[in-house]
Amino acid sequence: MLRLDRWLVTLGTGSRSEVQKLIRKGGVKVNGAIVTDPGKQVDERTAQLTVQGAAVDGRLVRHVMLHKPAGLLTAARDKKQPTVMDLLPDVYGAIGCMPVGRLDKDTTGLLLLTTDGEMNHRLLAPGRHVDKTYRATVDGALGQEHIAAFAAGMHIPADGKEPAFDALPAELTLEAPDVAVLTIREGKFHQVKRMFRAVGREVVQLHRLSFGALTLPDDLPEGSWRELTEDEIAALYRDAHLEVVRKPD
Ligand code: URA
Questions:
Q1: pLDDT tens for each residue of 184-232
Q2: Is 233 found in the same domain as 170?
Q3: How far is the CA of 27 from the centre of ligand 1 (A)?
Q4: Which domain does 232 fall in, by range?
Q5: Ligand 1, pocket residues at CB < 6 Å
Q6: Which of 168, 239, 242, 244 could form a disulfide with 212, with the two C-beta atoms 3.0–4.6 Å apart?
Q7: Which is the closest atom of ligand 1 to the Cα of 194?
Q8: What is the rounded CA–CA span in Å between residue 214 and residue 117?
Q9: Percent helix, strand and coil across the chain, each to the nearest 5
Q10: pTM beyond 0.90, yes or no
């Protein structure tokens, strides 16, 4: 439950004083009835909201999968460069939908965004080991020795500001001599590129195919997004070891 004016402000409808004015003059309906008290308590999970005659999707909890194109930063906002949030309607930013982890600017593929900060945090927690699968095209041939090196867990040397670390064993399979599918269970900064660099290969193209229980569907073109299905949400909460908060019946 929350105040009606707060709900509208959170949805990005206007400033507090703007929405209070709108409510007082009868511009807002809840469950089909005009409400003129800005402080009225409403259940935002179930109430139907109408603003100036138009139905408004008032959900404050949302989970989105996005097929990230190259060229966008994975960030909630940036002063200079376009971000993945530019692909979503403004309401997603207004309600605090944020990327889970990050893909590099030149990386494409599956990116999860959520308003659930606890889930976001848990999916990235170092001990959680959520699988992430990437397709990497590299600048030379790969072979059995590379598969073995990834499987053994490799030492990644320090790189600029990034400290050295020992990568967990990872699964590498080859689709072509210079194209590999790699599954890792952690998500250090630039991890995939650094792992290939450690075996003498530069990544020239990187695409994420899956994140935990989520797989990028074939029918989601680059630059598009959709909300997760109930089943996908449930699977993700299992990945995060959290309970799904279901809508009351
Ligand atoms: N590892 C990288 O090096 N880059 C990404 O974008 C994701 C994983």
A1: 999 899 999 999 999 999 999 999 999 999 999 999 999 999 999 999 9
A2: no
A3: 47
A4: 61-127+225-249
A5: 103-104, 107, 190-193, 206
A6: 239
A7: 3
A8: 18
A9: 25, 30, 45
A10: yes
CATH code at position 31: 3.10.290.10
Alpha carbon distance 139, 142 (integer Å): 9
Dist. CA 186–CA 216, nearest whole Å: 19
Q: Does 178 participate in catalysis according to the annotation?
A: no
| Catalytic choice (37, 43, 104, 106) | 104
Residue with CA closest to ligand 1 atom 3: 190
**Residue count of the chain:** 249
Contact of 157 with 163, CB cutoff 8 Å: no
DSSP class of residue 168? P
Say yes or no: 233 and 176 in one domain.
Answer: no
Which amino acid belongs to residue 14? Answer: G
Spatial neighbors of 132 by CB under 8 A, at least 6 apart, are 183, 184, 185, 187, 208, 210, 211, 212
Q: 73 and 105 in contact (C-beta within 8 Å)?
A: yes
